[in-house]
Amino acid sequence: MAGVDEDMLELSRIMLIRVEALGEQLADRIYSRIDGYRATPSARDNVRESCVANMTFVFHTLCNDGEADLSPAEATGRQRAVEGIPLAAVMTAYRIGFRYMWESSVAAAREAGIPTESILEASARIFLSQDEFTQAMTGAYREQLTSQIVDREEERSALVEAVLLGRITDNQSLWEAADLLGLPTAGPYVVAAAEIPAIGKLGLPEITSKLAARDIRSAWRLLPDLQVGVVHLRQDATYGVLVEVLRKIATARVGLSPAFTSLAATGEGLRLARLAVTGKPGRDGWVSAFDDAPLAFAAVSAPEVMNRIEESVLGGLRELPAEERAVLSQTFQAWLDAGGSANEAAAAIFCHPNTIRHRLHRIEERTGRSLSRPRDVAELCLAFEISQRLPD
């Protein structure tokens, strides 16, 4: 070991002999001074082992000019992240630890009669180690924390998917799922489905935090074609707030299911939200709600049968340009909303009553139905509802 400072070698030997006792004392000091550690008493043995390991490698550097082995610091960073001890607390522990190592080394050096020059050199090496070890620890801590966040988000996302797709059926498991997702165990809830700009991209960025800021709890999952979520309606006004938030951030179409009271109905809610987002665009911009009107449910109850009904009733309109078909559909809906009054329908869509009457006559001609016969009106109501609800 030619070229090694004998005084430094002696100090290193002294400190390594004492390292077990020093590690125990340092662990006590850390736990007595740092709240983040006191809150995790189960980590006490791990902290003592880390103190001993880090001290051992630092004391070896007192007589070694090579690069320090930073693996104990990296192991400490990963372990503390797993234990949930805040990084700020771990960095405080490192400051306490290295100061304790320095104080102990200086005291031991003076007892052994080691020259001042060697004590200063030892101090410089300890403080250099502090920088290197702290950087290694924080890097490993952040890597581990990132990995944990990704894992938790993947688990949460998978749980949301299981709830949405109806893979969890018994009440106990649903309550546990709601608890893990941070959702109340009792509704009402709605399902929201948003078109995505591209595979892997969010249609509603930061939606969870934006809703949380309005005191609305939700859980979301990104599917290959949609971003879907379960939203809890805390009170009646919550639905309006939800729609308001969605309209502000949506860049593509968003569909909402009717409200339901049990998470067991989430799968049906997803189906109706999908229909709302893939059906014909509504009058209210990007956000379309699937209401709980009987006609709406009838229109989507059996898609193959309903499409045949629509073709049978509205087939005569198919030859018209798409724009004219849309105008006739809007006019019929306005007439229905107005209780059959052409005057009120005209006021609602800003045209002359005679224009309303002309358009209604066109519908009668093209469909072979009369608006004066209740059965024919019922068929037209269902057919137009199907046309609005189901995609082409």
From TrEMBL:
Q: Which residues form the RsbT co-antagonist protein RsbRD N-terminal domain?
A: 21-156
Q: Which residues form the CdaR GGDEF-like domain?
A: 170-277
Instruction: Note the InterPro entries from the entry.
Output: CdaR-like_regulators, CdaR_GGDEF, PucR_C-HTH_dom, PucR_C-HTH_sf, RsbRD_N_dom
Q: Residue ranges of the PucR C-terminal helix-turn-helix domain?
A: 329-386
Query: What protein family does this chain belong to?
Result: Belongs to the CdaR family.
Q: What is this protein called?
A: PucR family transcriptional regulator
